Amino acid sequence: MPECGLLTHSHKPVPLQSISVDVLVRGFVADVVSELRYQNEEKNPVEAVFVFPLDDEAAVYAFEGLIGETRIEAQIREKKQAEQEYEDALSEGREAFLLGREANTSDIFTCSLGNLPPDGEATLKLRYVQALAPEPDGAVRFVLPAVLNPRYVPQGFVPTPGSGAGTVTNSIPRVPKGQLPYTLSLNVTLEAPCGINRVESKCTLEPLHYTAEDHTTAQVSLATGHQFDRDVELLVYYEDVHKPSTLLEAGKTGAAPGSLMGDPALLLTLYPSIPAPKPGLNSAGEFLFLLDRSGSMDNSSGVGRDSPSRIQSAKETLVLILKSLPLGCYFNIYGFGSTHDSFYPQSVEYTQKTMSKSLQRVKELRADLGGTEILRPLKDIYSQPCREGHPRQLFVFTDGEVFNTDEVIAEVRRHSSSHRCFSFGIGEGASTALIKGIARAAGGSAEFITGKERMQAKALQSLKKALQPAVTGISLRWDLPPGLEAALVGSGPQVIFEGQRCLIYGQIRGKPQSSESAEGSVVLKYSFQDQTLTETMKFPLQAQESDRLPVHRLAAQALLQELEEAKEQDEGKRRLALETSLSSGVVCSQTAYVGVNMELSKALQGPLSRRNIPLAQCFYAGVPQINRSLRSPRVCSSTYSEGVFYKCSARVAVPKPQARRFNLRMSAVSLKSKRREVDMDDHLEDLSDCSAPGLLREEEKETTLKEEGSLLLRLILLQNADGSWPLDSDLATLLDLSEAEISSQKPAQVIPTAWATVLAVLWLHFRAAEQNDEWQLLEAKALSWLQATAGPQLAECVKAGNALLGSSVSPQAFGL
Predict the structure, then answer these.
(1) CATH (one of 3.40.50.1220, 3.90.1640.10, 2.120.10.30, 3.40.50.410) for 286-467
(2) Rg of the chain on CA atoms, in Å
């Protein structure tokens, strides 16, 4: 019986020959055309079924096929009707194709091509448009998803009839890396009026080719040989990514005036000028951290065998977070898998004692809780009463492999008035529907950590958002010529964080009374702390013609997401979602595209063979999933049972394991001195080799590694909860000085702890400047403590510290 969702490939011919993708990226919008080329090399008709991931914000708006020489444009229908038309066509021997979303999630699609005749060829063309989000460093991120991980379904779960639950990855064959029988080509055209600086990717690209002297247009393509072992990610750097922009698009020809598709649609891309918050860390808040501890978290967090596991990166991230929290707040740490637990029965006040105790608990964390059931720990968290005066902030870290995405998002949305949610998708194939959905539902932000990206930096950036007040009370006022009015599509943004891109869609109704009026404007009004601020954006009223209507499709998708997430509570919204989907052509959970070849003169003969298109085999921690059960006493295995894949927790009967030591190695931090690794915990529990009857096992032998730790992490571990550092032998060793040397250079009238804290902050600026996004918050605590403690001697301490360390850090770094 196959393990871990891995089906042995039957070596039957695979009708899918190639996938070619053409992308047009204009600013923050990507318009994508994906062609799937099929050829039937068998003697009977075949049905080819291809299950693939898409970003949950992608608006799929067109589907067509070329079967032989017959072009067929698929029509969007109510889902049950489309499926019935497809089945009827197959039973009549007609060629047909179907495209729809899987149940319970918005980021997995199924494409079926039925009755492809022997020696027959077909090309299916899928079109979608997607709004792109900027990374913290300003890069605009486009991802072509290629990895579809098995979605966890609890063992013994019985889906509701018709729900489709638990069948997302049903019957998908998996083949080893490099053995997929189809190829991928990707060509990208870039357009940006402000200029294109560069393009980066973790995949191999052909050289960027500028097609305009001013670098406003360019082309780039994926190098041949992509193995489908990672998502194809492009980071596009513009010359001025923060410049606000507007795009007014003419309505669809023939669509009724007054409808979303018939009227011009406006896209506003804004970066509100949010002022700096008032000085000092806000100690009010309840910070809850929900960490995925399923078996898949043992998977490598980067590319290559030497990359740390996801759980290792998560543990280091929790260390940095715990050191960065302000005194007086409340916190708790939850872990989840098939079961869940927490450090404390309820959140506790952040003190030196609770911080130290929690750090020890973090060192003991393992990816040992089996599957991925996030709903039950969420309900447990929400059952805890909120603390008055301490707004709740929830941080969720997961690789996003769950089957009940819609149910999870609905649970978060039900409690959106009592908290904000910041989510992190870890590794290739993390569900965009889950990660983005829960953040969107509770007014937070979503981040994805793939390749060699450090989880620590993105987590600390989100924590910074949570510690600082966000823009609220957002409202829009339109200023248009007489005869025109504007309507916001959807509810619009509810909260905006510093550096966050804000997309606003508007529908422009009516006709101007005068042809002289060529400009309109919109005024964004919002509140920040005790200030009320406004920002005005002007835009031309000359609408651009477009046959693809990307702005209209994006507006429809934004509205559909809002309606779909609330449809369970409101039947009216469910009907409006269906009407919006059918009129805009954008697929939702209630609709699908279907195309039937009605020109077939003779029905196809012979039995119809179903061929499921294979995907790349998933790997965990550098070994195939089929061997995953050999790596830990509690394993995350998968079985194929009654047509459903279950990635579940199971205990296997094993001999008494032979104990051995295992030292956790945390990822090396790049410093100007040298690259080192840290053994974060010399007292971890023994992990043991184990074996199970009937399984091939390879003896794993790991030698204990006790290398000198990362200097940055060692320094952070020495910091007290109030932000200060003690003057002791550990700090002296890290600074490569003796305690006597440090004490002898201490300015008079300065307490040892203040002197040690100045030296630690100087070291951060001098030796770890490249990682400043990971220590800014804990430095802020240190500076706040210093300003209250060192007083007028602070400037003298900085001068003496620079002399002692041989550094030249400006006093301005200390607020002087």
Answers:
(1) 3.40.50.410
(2) 28
